[in-house]
Design a protein that fits this description.
82 residues; alpha+beta; five-stranded antiparallel β-sheet
Length: 82
């Protein structure tokens, strides 16, 4: 059974909306981590994390990353804005 999401983590549809809000407000996105709930804790790994060196195309890259990586048990994401 999955615990309540920790503060700052978003479900897939919420994360996609957050990226769209960032695009509309021109808020920089520095990175995204995708998490799964496994054996009583939230975990991620190297392949479920992306960091951006520049903001060129960041909103499309963020959306594509979320759509590709958030599947199955990988159900939560944290968007690094600061």
């Amino acid at each position: 059974m999955m615990e309540q999401l920790p503060e700052g983590m978003l479900l897939k549809h919420m994360a996609l909306h957050a990226v769209e809000d960032c695009r509309k407000k021109k808020t920089p996105i520095h990175g995204i981590e995708v998490f799964r709930y496994h054996e009583g804790s939230w975990e991620t790994n190297l392949y479920k994390t992306i960091w951006f060196k520049s903001q060129r195309g960041v909103y499309n890259k963020s959306r594509d990353f979320l759509l590709k990586q958030m599947a199955g048990e990988w159900s939560a994401a944290e968007i690094k804005k600061e």
